[in-house]
Write a structure and sequence with these properties.
The protein is of the alpha/beta class. It folds into three domains: 6-185, Rossmann fold, CATH 3.40.50.300; 191-366, P-loop containing nucleotide triphosphate hydrolases (Rossmann fold, 3-Layer(aba) Sandwich); 422-542, no CATH class. 41% of the residues lie in helices and 12% in strands. It contains 19 helices and 15 strands. It has helices spanning 6-20, 36-46, 58-70, 81-95, 111-116, 142-148, 187-192, 224-233, 236-247, 260-272, 286-297, 331-339, 359-363, 434-447, 451-460, 465-498, 503-514, 518-521, 526-539, and strands at residues 25-29, 50-55, 76-78, 106-110, 126-131, 154-159, 180-183, 199-202, 253-256, 277-280, 303-306, 321-324, 351-355, 390-392, 399-401. α11 links the parallel β10 and β11. α2 (36-46) packs across α3, α3 (58-70) crosses α4 and α16 (465-498) runs parallel beside α19 (526-539). The longest helix has 34 residues, at 465-498. It is globular and about 90 Å long.
Length: 543
């Protein structure tokens, strides 16, 4: 019996359609918690030839192995003997029989073991490779090297976030291996359809000083040593525990820490506060890690404090709270950590995110619309700059999108520090001072000046001849370009009103989506106006 959900069936059909259209390597995008492993396991189940699924950590190797076993797919495991034993044990615990078969045509491989066996003739027989967490794959890294080991295979990569902190592109034309990308439902759609749990975010004030924390030009991520020092100097350890006790006591939580020492200190403080906690990291022995997670699942432990272990692929619906004590510039890592708590479970009505390190403010809401691309991009771009920034309420610390004037959780209203420009009022023209409005409308009036009056104005300044004619022509082109832009803005605004949004909210949405307020927009020059028209038209369906 097919166990795929409707949206998983839909993206599976898109993948087949892309292959049938001639694309060799496909990148499929589904949100964290949407069931990427189940989806590609089903594709592997239908594949008639030799195939290999690749993961970069033993936890993901075990997860893929279990998914294949649940589909009754016998498979070999390319990895250390300890990982093979771990996978077999998981099979026995979860389904009562093992589907490990060292002679099977299907394989699950750990990336490091795989690349050390590059001369194995078996690789020539593979006709399908699947790469989990495929945002790692570049032609010049070990994931890309693994792909070249299967010269006769077509490929499928899956990820929740098809972008990298270093800005490199995943397309074959850029830095990666993928020919095309197919998109499944977004996170907000899956939340609305009850496939994922909704969330609420809190962002308490933090005293971490980032002034001396540099960002690597190579990775796009914080310098790890300087980041650890900044976190150690802060009060984040006590903040994590105190805010958990205040906001989400009695709920199962996972805390992301910057290093083992910080994780240990946080766990000790949890335990002193009566919250049973354990530390888990990459060097925690397998048997101990499995036992700890089992105790957590049974609510004998209430907190797992981990170091870069549960960011990708960890599937445990019991998680109700995420505490972020590990700052990151990586949007994929942020979304992976956030998504750990979104898997639905009976009795769980909302996931709680407590962000102590500014990740939500830095990256925005994880279910905001993103414009994914296989191209290179600026390293600080998080997949669509149109995503609306968020604000942490100074009264209740809840996070909400900044187009709202008032906190939807406690009704606190933030008063602008001044009203002399759109940057102080989030683009809300209704909040500007009369003097600011008059100044900005004056710029619009210059553009709207009648061609005859504009010619007279030039003449009054002794502009004549060819220069006069050229300037009049430019003025006419600018007016024509502005007319098109203003029509697009009017259409956009009509869509906002149709959705019941006030002018104030619409002004703010426009400002955050397009990077300028409406009055500045209708005073732009020809080139800028054309560019903005294109952006407004392209985003019309997303608002």
């Amino acid at each position: 019996m097919n166990r795929l959900r409707p949206y998983q069936m839909e993206i599976k059909q898109q993948i087949y359609a892309a292959w049938n259209s001639g694309a060799r390597n496909i990148l499929a995008v589904l949100p964290t918690g949407a069931g990427k492993t189940v989806t590609f396991s089903d594709i592997i189940h239908e594949h008639k030839g030799v195939c290999c699924a690749i993961a970069h950590r033993q936890e993901l190797v075990c997860q893929i192995s279990l998914a294949l076993a649940q589909d009754e797919i016998r498979h070999r495991i390319i990895g250390p003997a300890s990982v093979v034993r771990l996978c077999v044990n998981i099979h026995m615990q979860e389904i009562g029989t093992s589907y490990y078969d060292p002679s099977a045509s299907c394989a699950v491989a750990g990336i490091d073991t795989l690349t050390r066996r590059s001369n194995d003739p078996w690789f020539q027989t593979v006709t399908l490779w699947v790469q989990d967490e495929a945002h790692h794959v570049l032609t010049k890294n070990k994931w890309g090297k693994a792909i070249t080991m299967f010269p006769n295979a077509r490929g499928l990569g899956v990820t929740a976030t098809p972008l990298r902190a270093d800005g490199k592109g995943l397309g074959r034309h850029a830095d990666g291996v993928f020919d095309t990308m197919v998109l499944g439902l977004g996170m907000r759609d899956l939340i609305n359809q009850k496939y994922l749990t909704d969330y609420r975010i809190f962002a308490p004030l933090s005293d971490i000083d980032f002034n001396d924390v540099t960002i690597s030009k190579t990775t796009g991520e914080f310098n790890p040593d300087k980041l650890r020092k900044a976190v150690h100097k802060s009060h984040v350890i006590g903040d994590v525990v105190s805010h958990y006790m205040k906001i989400a006591p009695g709920r199962l939580g996972v805390t992301f820490a910057v290093d083992v020492q910080t994780a240990t200190d946080i766990a000790e403080q949890f335990n002193r506060s009566g919250v049973p906690a354990e530390v888990v990291h990459a060097k925690t022995p397998d048997a101990q890690r499995i036992a700890i997670i089992k105790r957590f699942r049974n609510r004998q432990l209430m907190q797992l404090v981990n170091v870069d272990l549960f960011g990708e692929g960890f599937d445990l619906p019991a998680i109700e709270v995420i505490s972020m004590a590990r700052p990151t510039q990586s949007y994929p890592l942020y979304v992976q950590q956030f998504g750990r708590s979104l898997r639905p479970m009976e009795g769980k009505t909302v996931a709680t995110i407590i962000d102590h390190v500014g990740n939500v403010i830095r990256h925005g809401l994880p279910d905001a619309p993103r414009l994914w691309s296989l191209d290179r991009r600026e390293s600080r771009d998080t997949g669509g700059s149109d995503a609306i920034p968020v604000r942490a309420c100074p009264a209740c610390t809840s996070v909400y999108e900044r187009f709202l004037k008032t906190c939807p959780f406690c009704d606190h209203t933030v008063t602008p520090a001044e009203r002399s420009g759109p940057e102080f009022v989030d683009g809300d023209l209704l909040e500007l001072s009369p003097e600011a409005l008059a100044r900005m409308r004056g710029e619009v009036d210059k553009i709207d000046m009648d061609l005859g009056d504009y010619g007279d104005w030039l003449a009054s300044r002794n502009v004549s001849g060819v220069v006069h004619a050229t300037n009049v022509k430019r003025h006419r082109v600018r007016q024509e370009t502005q007319a098109v832009l203003r029509e697009s803005i009017a259409y956009w605004a009509g869509g906002q009103r149709a959705k019941g949004r006030s002018d104030s909210e619409s002004y703010r949405r426009f400002y955050f989506m397009f990077g300028c307020d409406v009055l500045t927009a209708v005073a732009l020059g020809t080139t800028e106006a054309r560019e903005l028209t294109s952006r407004v038209n392209n985003r019309m369906e997303a608002v």
